[in-house]
Amino acid sequence: MNDFWKKKKVLVTGGYGFIGQHLTKKLLNRGVNTSNLVFFHKNDYDLRKESAVEDLFKKLGQIDLVIHLAGNVGGIGFNRVNPGKVFYDNIMMNTLVMEYARRNYVEKFVGVGSVCSYPKFAPIPFQEKDLWDGYPEETNASYGLAKKMILVQGQAYREQYGFNAIHLLLVNVYGPGDNFDLDSSHVIAGLIRKFVDAVWDDKKEVVVWGTGTPSREFIYVEDAAEGILLATGRYNKPEPVNLGAGFEISIKDLVELIVKLTGFKGRVTWDTSKPDGQPRRMLDTSRAEKEFGFKATISFEEGLKKTNEWYRDKKWNSRPIFP
Question: What is the tens place of the pLDDT at every residue in 80-97?
Answer without folding.
Answer: 899 999 999 999 999 999
